[in-house]
Specification:
- 71% of the residues lie in helices and 0% in strands.
- The two termini are 28 Å apart.
- With 157 residues, the protein is mainly α.
- It has one domain.
- Helix 1 runs antiparallel to helix 3 and helix 4 runs parallel beside helix 7.
């Protein structure tokens, strides 16, 4: 039987992991070697690279425009990951643990497209741990969520 104390511990771990990841990934914040020019886009925003595209010409301008498109995609994915993580935390609190796990897996997968996902991985671990430690009756019989989280974490954890 799940104790109130265990539920509180899980809720606290999930809240802490969510707060730790919140606003942590907004765009490219790692060293890059983008394209054939090896552009380092760390800390740059799409509007900055568009400005550089306009200030240069030829191949260099083309590279900066491609960098702007890539940075915009990274920023969009970061926003989508944060939205998915926010939804995951809310779903977990509402008792929708299967959906919470799916949402946080989506957030981690978005970040993993670009780098080792550190912003949302702690929340993934907290949600997966809460499911393993406190399985609901339907999970205990099928084990589907625990198995899904174990397989996902083996690839991304």
């Amino acid at each position: 039987m799940i104790t109130r104390n265990k539920r509180m511990q899980a809720a606290n771990a999930i809240d802490a992991a969510y707060e730790k990841g919140r606003n942590r990934w907004r765009g490219c914040d790692w060293t890059t070697s983008f394209g054939s020019m090896g552009l380092d886009l760390n800390g740059m925003k799409p509007h900055q690279t568009r400005w550089l595209a306009g200030a240069t010409s030829g191949e260099e301008a083309k590279h900066w425009e491609q960098a702007a498109e890539w940075l915009a995609r990274v920023a969009r994915d970061a926003q989508q990951a944060e939205a998915a993580a926010t939804e995951a935390a809310a779903l977990w609190k509402a008792g929708e643990r299967t959906l919470a796990l799916e949402k946080i897996q989506a957030a981690v997968a978005l970040e993993a497209r670009y780098r080792n996902p550190f912003a949302w991985k702690p929340l993934l671990h907290a949600i997966a741990d809460s499911i393993r430690m406190n399985p609901a009756p339907q999970w205990a019989s099928s084990g589907r969520d625990v198995q899904n989280s174990a397989g996902f974490m083996a690839k991304n954890g």
